[in-house]
């Protein structure tokens, strides 16, 4: 350290406190990175790596264009510490003072330039007797907590909320499993889980703590999240409302179901393409888009609340002019949730306040709408216009303010008398500068003489070098450039001091006024957040109506009964990419388990998924892709679709399948909807048939509504054995080519047409050989069976003693086992 320059010693002292972050160290107009940080930045950002004193690798980015660089680093999972010059370099005595003013991590973003329109959740997980989960979106102020009993439920919450960053205790089990599902995971020391500190943070930061009954595990999850956020934002405290949610108060969608039904991501590349949310998300505000996702994450089970949403959607569906007007107004509303969060964290810019004002003006227009449905009427009635906030910003802030809050040009004329006087004084001085320029041109005869200003040398008189001979003797040389010379005079120096002093006073006063205005608005944060939520609700309800018109959806009837009856149902995503054949679904007490047979590619899996997605859409309050539907509310949807192994747990595809089925059988109720596709196919046909048979019998006892697609035609016998089991099938039309009519019918498919369908993709030689083997196996089996039957027919039972009869029966049993009958 003794051999380092003062600036590098300062750097190392600051870096010591932020070892796990890339330190962006402000030097003039650049942020510089040194040593290992510089090497990482050079590699990740593609910027030049140089060196300082041939000892310290160095790389830098311009301060005015830093956000694109930070965004790329954040997306790759890095932390970034922003170290600013916190005093004016021109006034600093010696080394400029520097401090870290912000630590940016993927889950603590508030900067508009770094955020997408989706929620940006930081998740905290703590394991005690249960798992405590906290989710905080710093950019919107949303703070959620819950507890779950199993790690599978933790994964389900991760898949629902898709957090971008997660904090967990260092000794947390299943860290690797968490890392598979969350891009950035930080194991933290026990300091973050000190019980007393966690409780104190909750008391200091949660405004409604007395109204929230949170469990012990949630205290640690929430407390550690608050500590992490405060350290990242470098704020003394934050004020948030905590919302406790209980998964069982909504339809439960576990991790497997979310994946299999492609609710938020498709199974091919993990993008939104082809997912349910892609179809439904026609929202016009960022707040609405985020709320839509939350509604899909947690479908309702309260029929009254579902009906209120459906009634609202129906009104907007039928009143197209009203819907279009509402959506046009909502398009003018900025992201209020994120604006007020920046206000709360004292990061809001003048442009944020203008956006807030314009958004609240749009709210005033919505108050003029006359709705008849209960939900829409209540939203409009409770919607606050906050005219005093609008008036404050309108009177104070110019229409197109600068981004910086320290360079002036923010406050309108007429808002502050003192500021107006300073501006008039500055304007008079600048007018006098112009008079000096005109006088000196006349006195010297130099037409191109001009008086200018820059922050380095101040005011100057600039003269082309070709006219230097005309410069008066009392001019003092100030700066030499390639084509001009710059001078000053005593009169100019005198007025310069007055102008600069006046300019500094103006900037300081504008800064103080802006901070007071921002703090005044911060007092209304809860009210503005309530406005934001109601705007989001209007957006989602109008969007449901919009997609319903666009895709020809109809209003479902939702009740607390058992039945799910769908007429001409369609798969909401598949129908957008192919000609879709609608199908009916009838799940009642008399037909509660539907066994579906038929060839591959006939549409069995699509039929299963269609039923589940229509049910989910109905329970979030959206119209559905069907001609008619009655939906008895379900408490959970379970799926077992597809085959995959799990190497990390040492599970084969069969073990994964059986483990998932085990979870379904353990947790399903008579109010659940179960979708099973080819259960048992990952093992031998007899074992698979036996397991599938036993599983159907067990589900029959539970009473859950079930769609069971299978190639085990033996299961068809269950229709005559178990009440409420019905056989349905998809048929195939054989000709020169195979034709799928995609229509579900009563009855059982005769065969699976596996080889026939394989003709579509396999070489002819392979297919021909498969037919030969198939015929040989059938002949061999038929010959063996005929031989056995002939042998049995030749037994003269009249001449057998009881002992001889038993011996003959034992021979027959052994031969049947050898033939695998």
Automatic annotation (TrEMBL):
A single cellular component GO annotation: cytosol
InterPro entries according to UniProt: DNA_mismatch_repair_MutS, DNA_mismatch_repair_MutS-lik_N, DNA_mismatch_repair_MutS/MSH, DNA_mismatch_repair_MutS_C, DNA_mismatch_repair_MutS_clamp, DNA_mismatch_repair_MutS_core, DNA_mismatch_repair_MutS_N, DNA_mismatch_repair_MutS_sf
Pfam families, per the entry: MutS_I, MutS_II, MutS_III, MutS_IV, MutS_V
Domain of life: Archaea
SUPFAM superfamilies cross-referenced by the UniProt entry: DNA repair protein MutS, domain I, DNA repair protein MutS, domain II, DNA repair protein MutS, domain III, P-loop containing nucleoside triphosphate hydrolases
NCBIfam families named among the record's database cross-references: mutS1, PRK05399.1
Function: This protein is involved in the repair of mismatches in DNA. It is possible that it carries out the mismatch recognition step. This protein has a weak ATPase activity.
Protein name: DNA mismatch repair protein MutS
Name of the encoding gene: mutS
């Amino acid at each position: 350290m003794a051999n380092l320059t003062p600036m590098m010693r300062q750097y190392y002292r600051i870096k010591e406190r932020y070892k796990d972050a890339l330190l962006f160290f402000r030097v003039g107009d650049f942020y510089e990175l040194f040593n290992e940080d510089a090497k990482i930045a050079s590699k990740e950002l593609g910027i030049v790596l140089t060196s300082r004193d041939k000892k310290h690798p160095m790389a830098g980015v311009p301060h005015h264009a830093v956000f694109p660089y930070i965004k790329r680093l954040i997306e790759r999972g890095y932390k970034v510490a922003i170290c600013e010059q916190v005093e004016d370099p021109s006034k600093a005595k010696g080394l400029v003072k520097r401090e870290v003013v912000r630590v940016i991590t993927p889950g603590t973003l508030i900067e508009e330039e770094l955020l997408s329109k989706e929620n940006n959740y930081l998740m905290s997980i703590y394991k005690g007797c249960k798992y405590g989960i906290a989710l905080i979106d710093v950019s919107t102020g949303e703070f959620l907590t819950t507890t779950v009993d199993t790690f599978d439920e933790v994964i389900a919450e991760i898949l629902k909320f898709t957090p971008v960053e997660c904090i967990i205790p260092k000794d947390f089990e299943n860290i690797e499993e968490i890392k598979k599902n969350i891009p950035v995971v930080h194991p933290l020391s026990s300091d973050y889980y000190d019980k007393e500190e966690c409780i104190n943070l909750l008391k200091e930061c949660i405004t409604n703590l007395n109204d929230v009954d949170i469990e012990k595990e949630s205290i640690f999850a929430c407390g550690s999240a608050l500590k992490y956020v405060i350290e990242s934002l470098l704020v003394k405290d934050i004020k948030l409302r905590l919302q406790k949610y209980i998964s069982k108060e909504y339809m439960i969608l576990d991790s497997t179901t979310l994946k299999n039904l492609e609710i938020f991501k498709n199974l091919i590349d993990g993008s939104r393409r082809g997912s349910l949310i892609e179809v439904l998300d026609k929202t016009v505000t960022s707040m609405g888009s985020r709320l839509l996702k939350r509604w899909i994450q947690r479908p309702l089970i309260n029929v009254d609340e579902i009906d209120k949403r459906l009634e609202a959607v129906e009104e907007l569906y039928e009143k197209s002019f009203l819907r279009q007007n509402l959506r046009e107004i909502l398009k003018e509303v900025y992201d209020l949730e994120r604006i007020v969060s920046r206000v709360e964290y004292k990061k809001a810019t003048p442009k944020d306040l203008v956006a807030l004002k314009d958004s609240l003006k749009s709210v005033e227009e919505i108050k003029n709408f006359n709705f008849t449905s209960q939900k829409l009427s209540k939203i409009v009635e409770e919607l606050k216009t906050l005219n005093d906030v609008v008036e404050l910003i309108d009177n104070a802030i110019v229409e197109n303010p600068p981004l910086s809050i320290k360079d002036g040009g923010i406050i309108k004329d007429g808002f502050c008398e003192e500021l107006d006087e300073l501006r008039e004084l500055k304007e008079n001085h600048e007018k006098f500068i112009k008079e000096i320029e005109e006088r000196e041109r006349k006195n010297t005869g130099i037409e191109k003489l001009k008086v200018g200003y820059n922050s380095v040398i101040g005011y100057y008189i600039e003269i082309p070098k070709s006219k230097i001979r005309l410069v008066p003797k009392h001019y003092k040389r100030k700066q030499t450039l390639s084509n001009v010379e710059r001078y000053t005079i005593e009169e100019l120096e005198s007025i310069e001091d007055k102008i600069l002093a006046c300019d500094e006073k103006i900037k300081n006063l504008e800064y103080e006024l802006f901070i007071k205005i921002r703090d005044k608005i911060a007092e209304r944060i809860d009210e503005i957040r309530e406005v934001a939520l109601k705007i989001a609700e209007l957006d989602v309800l109008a969007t449901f109506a919009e997609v319903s018109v666009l895709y020809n959806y109809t209003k479902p009837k939702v009740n607390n009964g058992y039945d799910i009856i769908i007429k001409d149902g369609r798969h909401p995503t598949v129908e957008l990419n192919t000609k879709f054949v609608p199908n009916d679904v009838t799940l009642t007490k008399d037909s509660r388990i539907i066994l579906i047979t038929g060839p591959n590619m006939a549409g069995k899996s699509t039929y299963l998924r269609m039923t589940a997605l229509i049910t989910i859409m109905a329970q979030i309050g959206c119209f559905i892709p069907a001609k008619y539907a009655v939906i008895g509310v379900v408490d959970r949807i379970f799926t077992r679709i597809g085959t995959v192994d799990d190497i990390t747990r040492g599970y084969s595809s069969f073990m994964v399948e059986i483990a998932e089925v085990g979870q379904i059988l353990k947790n399903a109720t008579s109010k659940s909807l179960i979708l099973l596709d080819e259960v048992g196919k990952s093992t031998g046909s007899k074992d698979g048939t036996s397991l599938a048979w036993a599983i159907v019998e067990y589900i029959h006892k539970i009473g859950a509504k079930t769609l069971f697609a299978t190639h085990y035609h033996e299961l068809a016998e269950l229709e005559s054995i178990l009440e409420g089991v019905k056989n349905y099938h998809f048929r195939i039309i054989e000709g020169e080519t195979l034709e799928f009519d995609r229509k579900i019918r009563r009855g059982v498919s005769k065969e699976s047409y596996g080889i026939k369908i394989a003709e579509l993709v396999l070489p002819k030689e392979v297919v021909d050989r498969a037919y030969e083997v198939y015929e040989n196996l059938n002949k061999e089996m038929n010959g063996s069976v005929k031989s056995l039957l002939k042998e049995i027919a030749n037994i003269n039972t009249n001449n057998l003693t009881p002992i001889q009869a038993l011996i003959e029966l034992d021979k027959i049993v052994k031969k049947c086992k050898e033939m695998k009958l």
